[in-house]
Amino acid sequence: MNKQNTYRVLMVEPTNFQFNEQAGKSNSFQQKPTNKEASDAPRKAKKEFNDFVQTLRSYGVDVTVIQDLADSSCPDSVFPNNWISMHQSGELFTYPMAIPNRRQERRPDIINTLAAKFNYSVKDLSYHENKQIPEFLEGTGSMVFDHNYKTIYAAISSRTHINVLNEFSSLIGYKAVSFNAFGRKGEPIYHTNVMLCIGSTFALIGNKTIGKGDYPKIRDSLVSCNKEIIELSNEQIYNHFAGNMLQLINNKAETLLVMSQTARNCLTKKQIEKIKKHNDHIIPVAINTIEKIGGGSARCMIAEIFS
Q1: pTM above 0.90, yes or no
Q2: For the chain, how many structural domains are there in total?
Q3: What Cα–Cα distance (Å) separates residue 280 from each residue in 174, 229, 249, 256?
Q4: How far is 200 from 278, CA to CA, in rounded Å?
Q5: Mean pLDDT of the chain
Q6: Summary count for the chain: helices (H), strands (E)
């Protein structure tokens, strides 16, 4: 049975999307907007979000939409995958967030609604924020799961600490494979999911972002888990969000690979051919404002609901 993919997802509609100054200190994928871009950002982000939801639903994906609060002070609420994950074990996890103004995204009303609807038990790891030396693990931004083989891949950064990763992997009964990956200026890549996507039978990976000493163990792990490796260039990762994709299924059990239009446009013919071997549909969505100002892409906007 394919445990890797789900047809149910959670997405949070933004009400006050903006450039997050706090997040920008560790997210080199964000680009500071002009004054006009900043004033247009909430409206454009909301339209991009709603078009994205409509596209997923048109392909047979069950999308639960929660609207951010009307007076929200959360500029990044459109990226819920960093603070919540839901699992076939019947567990819902909430996570410690490195960016202080993002911690308000962990809304008890959302958690309680999902827990009641899908009968989840809630495991809260956010207490790591309050330790004398705080540590963080930002959900499926920090971690990319291979559910079929119970393996977690995680690039260590200021938002992904090994102690919390090990605690989580012990709680869920998965093996953690940690490594180092680097951005365009040699800084640690802030989230693993910008350079790695794992589907049921393939993996898209920015292999050249990974430290040389680490790549062999990542490659060997993926091969041992029966994944065809599709390599992405640094240019595709850094400039086009090509690693930030997510494989879903729909109500017909077809496989869908969701990505931004920016990512789709940069893929080579050979890469597309390989992707098509493993997916019934490629679904690109236009989210230029969210990508540029928010520094996250299609995968970041989706929290999977496994039940």
Answers
A1: yes
A2: 1
A3: 28, 18, 9, 6
A4: 8
A5: 94
A6: 10, 15
